[in-house]
Design goal:
Elements (H helix, E strand, L loop, with lengths): L12 H13 L7 H14 L3 E5 L2 H11 L7 E5 L4 H9 L3 E5 L10 H7 L4 E4 L11 H11 L2 E5 L7 E2 L2 E2 L6 E5 L12 E5 L2 H10 L23 H32 L5 E2 L7 E2 L5 E5 L1 H4 L3 H9 L6 E2 L8 H5 L9 H9 E4 L7 H13 L3
Parallel strand pairs: 2-3, 2-4, 4-5, 5-8
Antiparallel strand pairs: 1-9, 6-7, 6-11, 8-9, 10-12, 12-14, 13-14
Bound molecules: pyridoxal-5'-phosphate.
Pyridoxal-5'-phosphate binds next to helix 3 and helix 4.
Length: 371
């Protein structure tokens, strides 16, 4: 039996064509026109003024933190329920991550708790649009305005997600995206930072290229990085961008089919789509309530694995990471909602290549699991 992967990239003849054209041109580094073309195309897709491509979603986040001059003595508020790169980007710049719990419905940061975590040292908030659902951005932006804070939207999982009909990433001070192989569009590896701020974009562009000063050679006013994307990545990205609307539609259609087939199963919580959000369903995640469902998350994962269905457990909370504990961070902090997500969450196969028959099979297996 063919295994159903949790996620696989959707690459076709267009990606191959652009990749070979770029290869044949000989311009494979970051100074190729293809990189600028990709950035311009991404700006048009997302509706932002500037885009700075990078080597990954992580370096895009790191670049945003650095370009906003966030460093030692500054605090940055993030959800504890996120991928580790969000937290590391703050630590790379020697700033201090401060955590908030998750919202039980959207699994994104709890905005009520956010208020309580703001101190005079707070410099920024990084809302993470988890698994394709948007954070409730209005109250976050209001708080940011009241307290003069930057907002960096971590949109790695939310390409095409909309908040009140606006693309996520364009609401905060800046936004960052990832093009890792399992993300909604991919370059193999890659990332991008977007902003409407001309000064911020200019500074980010300098920092991502060794801190070279435009117009002069080998003169440095900053400790820069090399976060440059190659033209080979940009070529694949350009092809993926031409297909991005299809990918989002397929992900939404797959999610609708999953939800219709799973909705009556006792003890399974489905992902939501709040009325103010267009969920791009990067990953279709469910929560397994052991008492009500009759099997716990790990048992269900094993049961599905034995039937050729690959799944993935949810993130492990930042406050429970051994490395951060060793650093003395997040001592004695608890976040009950995020801990429940960590314990009960499982995401199901979510590729754009998934077929309706495969989804039906997966849902049948889940239904049968407890009989
Ligand atoms: C994938 C991801 C990242 C990191 O992206 P990479 O391209 O793997 O570096 C950052 N934040 C979140 C929320 C992610 O899901």
């Amino acid at each position: 039996m063919k295994k159903i992967p949790v996620c696989e990239p959707n690459l076709g003849s267009l990606e191959r064509k652009y990749l070979i054209e770029t290869f044949d041109s000989g311009w494979i580094s970051s100074i190729s026109p293809h990189v600028k073309e990709f950035e311009d195309a991404f700006c048009r897709f997302i509706g932002s003024k500037h885009a700075i491509s990078t080597t990954s979603g992580t370096t895009a986040l790191h670049l945003a933190v650095a370009a906003l001059d966030i460093g030692e003595g500054d605090e940055v508020i993030i959800p504890t329920f996120t991928m580790v790169a969000t937290c590391n980007a703050i630590l790379y710049q020697r700033a201090k991550p401060v955590l908030v719990d998750a919202d039980p419905e959207t699994w994104c940061m709890d905005v009520e708790q956010l208020k309580e975590k703001i101190t005079p040292k707070t410099k920024a908030i990084i809302p993470v649009h988890i698994y394709g659902h948007a954070c409730d951005m209005k109250p976050i932006m209001d708080l940011a305005e009241d307290h003069d804070l930057y907002v960096i939207e971590d949109c790695a999982e939310a390409i095409g997600t909309e908040y009140k009909r606006q693309q996520v990433g364009t609401i905060g001070t800046c936004g960052t995206f990832s093009f890792y192989a399992n993300k909604t569009i991919t370059c193999g590896e890659g990332g991008i930072m977007i902003t409407d701020g001309t000064y911020l974009a200019g500074k980010a562009r300098i920092l991502m290229n060794h801190g070279f000063t435009p117009g002069t050679h080998f003169l440095h006013h900053y400790i820069g990085f090399n976060f440059r994307m190659t033209a080979l990545q940009a070529a694949i990205g350009l092809a993926q961008l031409e297909r991005v609307y299809d990918f989002i539609e397929i992900k939404r259609r797959n999610a609708a089919l999953y939800s219709s087939l799973l909705k009556d199963i006792h003890g399974i919580t489905l992902p939501v789509e709040k009325e103010w959000c267009k969920n791009s369903y990067w990953m279709y995640g469910i929560l397994v309530n052991e008492e009500e469902f009759g099997m716990n998350r790990d048992e269900l994962q094993k049961y599905l694995e034995e039937r050729g269905i690959e799944t993935r457990i949810f993130f492990r909370c930042m406050h429970n990471q051994p490395i951060y504990k060793r650093m003395g961070l997040f001592k004695d902090e608890t976040y009950p909602v995020a801990e429940r997500l960590e314990r009960d969450g499982l995401y199901l196969p979510s590729s754009t290549k998934l077929t309706p028959d495969e989804i039906k099979y997966i849902c049948e297996c889940i239904k049968e699991a407890v009989f």
